[in-house]
Design brief:
182 residues; 5-stranded antiparallel sheet; 26% helix; 4 helices; alpha+beta; two-stranded antiparallel sheet
Length: 182
Amino acid sequence: MKATGIVRRIDDLGRVVVPKEIRRTLRIREGDPMEIFTNREGEIILKKYSPIGEIDNFAKQYAESLAQVSGYKVIISDRDQIIAVAGGAKRDMIGKNISNDLENLINERDNLTTEGGHVRAIPIYEGQDEPMESQVVYPIICEGDIIGSVIIMGKDEKQNVSATEQKLAGVAASFLGRQMEA
């Protein structure tokens, strides 16, 4: 565990303020759910809760199936990081923070498609160069809340997305959102 040197007192209602620098670094926003754990040493551990993380294995299997059927790269993210990658994409992407462009897109509840080259592709994770591959991005919405995204990408610059991939991404996002409601 990393020491920050910051000390906070508990108020009369039992609350502790998480410093702004830590919230910014960990991408914790106002209203974000947090999980609370304790360990044997008496430490309290706060962890940002990811509802889509509960179906992590299911999301990975779904991404694998979708990639196999479509022949494209498939990436599934929660609101903060990539949780599943399939279809020839690099496995080292898993766990990387999503890019600000992707975060803004899904927070706007918007989808993106580069079909026909009218819209430029956006970086998927922090530090990624601007991708040349075509892509479709759909937000995953569960009970009115945004919980992540489904991304379908070409495996190279020559493989372009079409209306079929748009529909596949939309169906996948809708299905994953409904799985979280169950």
